[in-house]
Amino acid sequence: MAILSIIEIPDPRLKLVSEPVAHVDASVRKLMDDMMETMYDAPGIGLAAIQVAVAKRVLVLDVAREGEEPQPLFIANPEIVWASEELNVYQEGCLSIPDYYGDVERPSRVRVRYLDRDGKVQEMNADGLLATCVQHEIDHLNGVLFIDHLSRLKRDRVMKKYTKAARLRSEA
Ligand code: GNR
Ligand code: NI
Description:
- By secondary structure, this protein is of the alpha+beta class.
- It has helices at 26-41, 128-141, 152-171, and strands at residues 46-48, 58-61, 73-83, 87-94, 97-107, 109-115, 121-127.
- The strands form two sheets. A five-stranded antiparallel beta sheet has the order 1-2-3-6-7. A two-stranded antiparallel sheet has the order 4-5.
- It is globular.
- The protein binds ligand GNR and nickel (II) ion.
- The site of ligand GNR has 17 residues, from strand 1, strand 4 and helix 2.
């Protein structure tokens, strides 16, 4: 396994719409395993392939708290087949926007159909933090970041700050 490097805004690749995988083959399984190791190392509770610069519809999740049994989920080609009308606000963060947090409103429960690490079709019901996180990751597969759900004023401020920080780093 390997720890991959995570890309950050304003990297334009974060806006790409990722491509479905044809099959969960050995190369997709290796990507999933490397992403899981990268996510645990960060640490984070979810990671989409585009965050490691791979435009495939692949994501990993583990929302178990420290000290709890790990609950790793390996997901390819996810589809939200049902979302609750009830909404929930959660303060989100993103490994591609380090040290910035903002409140996002999303359906509080979703049902997701996907291919697991063995390529088998699965469906899961998610609520709480898992529901928030899986929707955040599926957004990444569509080139959408959590700041896209905030006001334009907040989003523009964040983009400006990180764009300037990237420029200063590149000049250093
Ligand atoms: O580690 C993460 N924490 C988090 C907290 C609230 C809502 C969503 C997330 S996902 C984030 C990791 C990440 O950037 N995944 O794309
Ligand atoms: Ni994210």
